[in-house]
Amino acid sequence: xxxxxxxxxxxxxxxxxxxxxxxxxxxxxxxxxxxxxxxxxxxxxxxxxxxxxxxxxxxxxxxxxxxxxxxxxxxxxxxxxxxxxxxxxxxxxxxxxxxxxxxxx
Length: 105
Hints:
CATH class of the domain at 9-45 and 56-79: Mainly Beta
CATH architecture of the domain at 9-45 and 56-79: Roll
Number of strands: 10
Distance between the termini: 15 Å
């Protein structure tokens, strides 16, 4: 089980987007995340009339290192550390270490 999953709300700790929050779109294999609206760059696109692609600039989300983000805690409104715990029924869940609240119920 990973500490940050697809669909989690995260906050950026380091980099030019420091302090911004966003939702995780994809977790990549090399410990990187794609977060919507974070680490955006402008890329040039060649036109391809056969595929109906128009040329010009496009804005693209680039991967960010997983160590540069933290899971957003809505209670404290800050990045928080995550731990693992087993519930009474044997289910493994994540919890915020500062408030001891379960992340996913």
